[in-house]
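For concreteness, we quote verbatim a single protein encoded this way:
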Amino acid sequence: MTEPQLKPDAPAIVVQDLHKYFGDNEVLKGIDFHVDQGDVVCVIGPSGSGKSTLLRCVNLLEQPTSGKIFIEGAEVTDPDIDVDKVRSRIGMVFQQFNLFPHLTVLRNLTIAQQRVLKRGRDESAEVARRNLDKVGLADREDAYPAHLSGGQQQRVAIARALSMDPDMMLFDEPTSALDPELVGDVLGVMRDLAHEGMTMMVVTHEMGFAREVGDKLVFMDDGVIVEEGAPSDVLANPRHQRTQAFLSKVL
């Protein structure tokens, strides 16, 4: 197994000619794409366009059919590379919160630190409390997930990912499972992370967030990137007819 040579000055994510099939169905059709260090890239598009599959391919939760993916200069699609080493640099937040229901909030944040990063109990708890404070939930460390709202659970999930000290964060429609009044708190945490310089790739339906926080907006449809550019440009003056048709329905 090859030790990845991560280069902090390389682009955070580079995707080259990425194809993904599920059986006979080609979901990604030759994607070329990159995320620079410190940038927030928002990916939008209709359901079934391949957005979540692209995100899941980036940290190899889905195995690409062909093409190459580089994380900080290391090719994660190289079959000989230590993928877990690379994946440990990537935080992932899903639509569903995926918290352990039988563990307290604090224990949800410390278990992976202790098992994967080999941190001691006190250090992992200190890191966890710092991140719970960051997401506005310092007073809920002893609660169980069932006693939290969906928005609070999602913020715990973000704090859990941050507790692993990732270089970048991937968000797969993190607000789509939330009641509308809970969305703002989660987006507020993500906004703060962006302002701190965290590299982020966000699959989202939240156009206001994309406009305000994104450095680049990518519109996908039918497995291809149709259009990309500055969010204000793409949202206000979409060049492609498919982008225009999609935005006319969601804006």
Notes: The two ends are 48 Å apart (CA to CA). Strands lie at 13-22, 25-35, 40-44, 66-71, 74-75, 90-93, 168-172, 199-203, 216-221, 224-229. The CA atoms of residues 103 and 144 lie 6 Å apart. The mean pLDDT is 95.
